[in-house]
Amino acid sequence: MTDIGFEHINWLTVLIGAVIYMVVGGIWYGPIAGKAWMKEMGLTEEEIKESGNPTEAMVKSFVSALFMSAGLAFVLSMPAFRDSGWQGGMMTGFILSVLLVGGSTFPNYAFENKSLRHFLIHMGNVTIAMMLIGAMMGYWR
Q1: Where are the alpha helices (DSSP H) in the chain?
Q2: Contact, 93 vs 131, CB < 8 A?
Q3: Which of 98, 117, 124, 129 has the fewest CB atoms inside 10 Å of its own CB, making it the most exposed?
């Protein structure tokens, strides 16, 4: 029987991983790529401010970040990854982000006629966050 399961997951790192994801997103969609994202969306800063309270979207994003963080923790709990350290965790986050998340979401952008730039803006956020979360999980066993 394969030695994988929830008993090998550090659930505190899952919670912290979700927080990391939210912090990275705040920085990414703020000073780093915020203006480029707004341009791709056809929005202005005034329109975003007038759109109302973002609390509901933030809560939904945090729940999604918990699932993503738990998935990464589950992969890193598998025997082949358990002792990979922070570098292995970071590389696993990178590979899962680019190959699985990117590969599965790119068709949505294609069918919605979104630009490659739009896709890369979102993938930059996901990839950086997953690399940082993976590094944290790989280090903190």
Answers
A1: 11-27, 34-41, 45-50, 55-76, 85-95, 103-111, 116-139
A2: yes
A3: 117
* Residue reference for tokens 């705040």: 26
Structural tokens at position 41: 């969306």
Domain residue limits, the chain? 9-139
Residue listed under structure tokens 């480029």: 36
Buried b (16+ CB within 10 A) or exposed e, 60-89: eeeeebbebbbebbbbbbeeebeebeeebb
73 vs 113: CA distance, rounded Å:
33
Task: Please state the pTM of the whole predicted model.
Answer: 0.92
Per-residue model confidence as pLDDT tens digits over 11-50: 999 999 999 999 999 999 999 999 999 999 999 999 988 8
